[in-house]
């Protein structure tokens, strides 16, 4: 007998995401052996649920009415997020391209440069090369070919990868770079946490005198965004951050690439980036969004 759901008592999606995040943070503090045991249990449980969901999906697809219900279900942000996590639905092309570029980035960094995804438009992926990887050098050409190969391997619908001109990117700072002078509070800069306090597994909120900013660390880069989902202005600091750098809004399930601020499932919206500097390993932000 199947228990009937009581919608009045159904947990809120943001509460479920927060609970998962809290459990993950606790597991991050375990020693190697307990952490490995938790990872093995989680993997087995996800495989169990994934197979159950696949059987449900196959059964629904076999019936015309079932197909309609399936499409309705997938439109639910929480259901979509669960199916995406378990590999039931195919990731969005932007997510797949971003993941491919993340895999190429270590090679770029080893050659004194970097590469980032700017946008995916029609059947073209636009990327920006930084440092030694920009221009027309042989290493830049090799990297460009490597990026295109990696992207097409996971997103065959992409016909070409096009590199656009390098320029400073708001919200991106290499940790080894220091400003010549400390940012001045007189010029609107607000001191945040030290780089060492920023965890890669979750976003960090800076709330100080009207400054509400979201900081995200990805490897050797730090990004600053206004802590506001462009959908309804709700805060994002309790959102779940995936290993691939995708932040899910805890309120309505929108997903954002933290390296570009672009919304994965709604390309018309994106996070608002803010100027950021690092001086003596302290992160400084300008909440008013003006560079100086």
Features:
single chain; alpha+beta; GMP Synthetase, Chain A, domain 3; 3 domains; four-stranded antiparallel β-sheet; three-stranded mixed β-sheet; 13 strands; 35% helix
Radius of gyration: 21 Å
Let me know the CATH homologous superfamily of the largest domain: Rieske [2Fe-2S] iron-sulphur domain
Q: Order the strands across the largest sheet as they lie in space.
A: 4-8-7-6
CATH third-tier fold name of the largest domain: Rieske Iron-sulfur Protein
Structural class by sheet pairing and helices: alpha+beta
Element string (H = helix, E = strand):
HHHHHEEHEEEEEEEEEEE
Strand-residue proportion: 15-25%
Number of helices: 6
Q: How confident overall, as mean pLDDT?
A: 77
| Main sheet properties | 4 strands, antiparallel
Gross morphology:
globular
Would you identify the CATH architecture of the largest domain? 3-layer Sandwich
Helix content: 25-40%
Provide the low-confidence segments as ranges.
167-179
């Amino acid at each position: 007998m199947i228990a009937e759901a009581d919608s009045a008592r159904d947990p809120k999606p943001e509460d479920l995401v927060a609970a998962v995040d809290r459990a993950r943070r606790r597991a991050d503090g375990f020693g190697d052996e307990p952490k490995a045991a938790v990872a093995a249990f989680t993997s087995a449980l996800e495989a169990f649920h994934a197979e159950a969901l696949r059987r449900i999906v196959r059964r629904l697809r076999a019936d015309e009415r079932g197909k309609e219900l399936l499409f309705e279900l997938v439109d639910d942000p929480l259901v979509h997020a669960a199916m995406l996590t378990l590999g039931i639905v195919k990731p969005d092309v932007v997510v797949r391209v971003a993941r491919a570029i993340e895999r190429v980035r270590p090679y770029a960094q080893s050659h004194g440069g970097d590469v980032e995804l700017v946008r995916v438009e029609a059947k073209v992926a636009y990327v920006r090369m930084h440092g030694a990887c920009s221009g027309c050098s042989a290493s830049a050409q090799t990297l460009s070919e490597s990026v295109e190969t990696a992207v097409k391997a996971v997103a065959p619908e992409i016909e070409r990868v096009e590199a656009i001109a390098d320029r400073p990117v708001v919200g991106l700072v290499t940790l080894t770079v220091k400003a010549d002078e400390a940012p001045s509070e007189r010029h609107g800069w607000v001191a945040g946490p030290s780089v060492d306090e920023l965890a890669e597994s979750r976003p960090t909120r800076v709330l100080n005198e009207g400054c509400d900013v979201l900081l995200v660390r990805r490897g050797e880069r730090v990004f600053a965004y206004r802590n506001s989902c462009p959908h309804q202005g709700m805060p994002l600091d309790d959102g779940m951050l995936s290993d691939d750098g995708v932040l899910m809004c805890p309120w309505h399930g929108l997903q954002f690439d933290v390296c570009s601020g672009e919304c994965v499932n709604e390309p018309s919206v994106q996070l608002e980036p803010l100027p950021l500097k690092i001086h003596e390993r302290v992160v400084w932000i300008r909440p008013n969004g003006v560079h100086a």
